[in-house]
Amino acid sequence: MTSAQRGTLALVFTAACAVAVFFAPAFGQPPSYHDFADRRALLGVPNFGDVASNLPFLAVGVAGLWAIRRGGRAVFIENEERWPYVFFFVGVLLTAFGSSCYHLAPGNGRLVWDRLPITMAFMGLIAALVADRVSVRFGRTLTLPAVVVGLASVWYWQWTAARGAENLMPYLILQGYTIVMVLMLAVLYPSRYTEGSMIYGVFIWYALAKLLEFGDRAVFGAGGLVSGHTLKHLASGLATFWVLRMLTARRALAAGAIPA
After folding, report:
1. Mean pLDDT score of the chain, rounded to an integer?
2. In a domain, 182, yes or no
3. Is residue 114 a part of any domain in this protein?
């Protein structure tokens, strides 16, 4: 597949998702979403499992920002490649607080603070992959607009909910777009660094997290020790850790080298 064909495929998919935002039927957040399986309190903390399992996001966010600061272990051929990862790890760090706040007292009002940093991390990762695999300049230019679009999808959901016409569909489309686009960029464009194939590990951990989320009650009912949603947080934390591991393990490829 030529470079033009790869670019066309990515643009067509992006355009299709953008059109779907305007024409897909409205979808409201089901009230049952907030009915998590494990409601046990511990040490005075309600829903302890779902709250405490956000700690990996805090650890990865801090470690990631430390790694990409000047003098850190992360490798960047060009300094501008740092910025998408800054947004990614800031998003991961804030998810620890937003998700913990939400799970202390689940409801739509608090859920917005969970989803805002998640979209920041999603968009930061896409921009980082574009900078690595397509164009540093394009990735840098894309970063801020992509983050704004991600945040806007969450604010739009809250705005429509406040007016009695709740529509979560743009956020759902954005989430699906992120997953598919990460795979498309990984498959269609080689990395300029070693360890580029580690991005598939990020996808696998995140896919497992979504399965655990859907199986919240089934997992909890299997033994009553831990819920699917708690494990979902841990699997998602491992997905973010895999990004950090990729950054700290990789090295710039020599010109003409074949990426892994």
Report:
1. 93
2. yes
3. yes
Domain that holds residue 127: 46-249
- C-alpha 81/C-alpha 132 separation (Å) is 7
So what's the pLDDT on residue 5?
A: 84
Q: Tokens for 69?
A: 């600061």
Rounded to 5 degrees, φ, ψ at 165 are -135, 55
Q: Kindly report the CATH number assigned to the domain that includes residue 59.
A: 1.20.1070
User: In total, how many domains does the chain have?
Assistant: 1
Interhelix angle 169-188/136-162, rounded to 10 degrees, is 160
The predicted model scores a pTM of 0.94
- Residue 33 in domain: no
Q: Could you tell me which of 257, 251, 253, 255 has the C-alpha nearest to residue 73?
A: 251
Q: Hey, how many other C-beta atoms are within 10 angstroms of the C-beta on 188? A: 16
The β-bridge partners of 45 are 42
**pLDDT tens digits, 152-211:** 999 999 999 999 899 999 999 999 999 999 999 999 999 999 999 999 999 999 999 999
Q: What is the pLDDT of residue 156?
A: 96
Asked if 220 and 226 count as a contact pair (C-beta separation under 8 A), the reply is yes
- Residue 15 included in any domain: no
Name the token pair of 166. Answer: 């709740």
Report which of 173, 202, 205 is spatially closest to residue 185, judged by C-alpha positions.
202
pLDDT digits (tens, 9 = 90+) for 90-140: 999 999 999 999 999 999 989 999 999 999 999 999 999 999 999 999 999
Instruction: Kindly list the distances between the CA atom of residue 254 and the CA atoms of 49, 74, 79, 186, in Å, as whole numbers in the listed order.
Output: 46, 17, 18, 19
Q: Which residues make Cβ contacts (< 8 Å) with residue 52, sequence separation at least 6?
A: 45
